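JOB MANIFEST
job_type = single_chain_structure
chain_count = 1
residues = 129
[input]
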Amino acid sequence: MQTDIDPRSLIGRKAFDRNGAKIGTVDEVYLDDATGEPEWAAVRTGLFSRDAFVPLEPSELADEGLRVPYDRKLIKDAPDFGVGRHLSPEQELQLYHHYRLDISAPVSDSDSPFPSPGEDLGRVAGSPD
């Protein structure tokens, strides 16, 4: 996805799956703590439904909205963590596994490819640091 886009401009946009079927509307955008780049979007999947987290990296911003390169069923089956809070490292790992994404965290002093216990990996766009 384009990294020069203001994450707040994604909020309220329609989200579509790989086949062009509407998934819902972007509720919130989560930023990577290390880079400050938009990493996840919480998409409201229906009037009485929940928010499904979708990865922004393989997604594309198009005129009609956010196009997520996954099937609607996979998106709707994503783990539900609620919105408005930090994603814990464990929650983010669950999302990476759900979407079968490569896990590439910043390398720490110990050269471990995984985050330190308790390290936050994502925050809500527009929230205080």
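[summary]
The chain has a mean pLDDT of 80.
Helices lie at 72-76, 89-98.
exit_status = 0
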